[in-house]
Design a protein that fits this description.
Blueprint (H helix, E strand, L loop, with lengths): L3 E2 L4 E4 L4 E2 L10 E6 L2 E7 L5 E2 L7 E3 L5 E3 L8 E8 L4 E11 L6 E7 L2 E7 L7 E6 L10 E5 L8 E8 L2 E8 L5
Length: about 180
């Protein structure tokens, strides 16, 4: 069976939980996971999995080949290979995992544009993040990097909070609207 390479590098964040995107439908007899050529986890049939090295005590290998690593560390970055045998065929998957430091808190800047207060949220994170704005006491969210509020509608007692998310990690900053007008 020809090896299947994942197209992209997969990213995890330090201290997150990461699961390799493996979906093997057929019953698997034997599974071996290697990291940089060293075996890190293996499973035979219905026997419980065995873990080696740094993954011992912080990973789970399921029957379908899924490997989950808890509390990611920078040292978990590397090339992972899954070899499996389903009693007829051998299968082979390869993944590259990069582990990034979590993003820092975003920065909020503001300007007046016409009759609107425009809040802008920026992140120094090296990958694209999702931006969300919330105003205190308002249940609605605004899903963009920029948030525009008509000046006539501003309640100076409120605060605006910008949230950035990447993977399972979220960071936020807030600004009091009174300091903007």
């Amino acid at each position: 069976v020809a090896p299947i390479y994942s197209e992209d590098v997969l990213f995890g964040i330090v201290e997150e939980t990461f699961t390799f995107p493996v979906e093997i439908k057929q019953r698997i007899e034997e599974i071996t996971w290697k990291k940089n050529k060293d075996i890190v986890a293996e499973r035979e049939g219905d026997k419980p999995p065995i873990y080696f090295s740094s993954l011992e005590g912080r990973s789970v290998l399921k029957e379908n080949g899924n490997l989950t690593i808890f509390n990611l560390e920078k040292s978990d970055a590397g090339t992972y290979e899954l070899h499996y045998w389903d009693s007829v065929n051998d299968g082979y998957l390869k993944f590259i995992l990069d582990v990034l430091d979590p993003p820092s808190e975003p920065e909020i800047s503001y300007s007046i544009r016409g009759d609107n207060l425009v809040l802008n949220c920026t992140s120094d994170f090296q990958k694209p993040v999702n931006y969300t704005w919330k105003l205190s006491d308002d249940l609605r969210s605004h899903w963009s990097q920029e948030f525009s509020i008509p000046i006539k509608n501003i309640d100076a007692t409120k605060k605006a909070t910008c949230f950035i998310t990447f993977s399972q990690t979220e960071k936020s900053s807030e600004i009091s609207l009174i300091q903007c007008i």
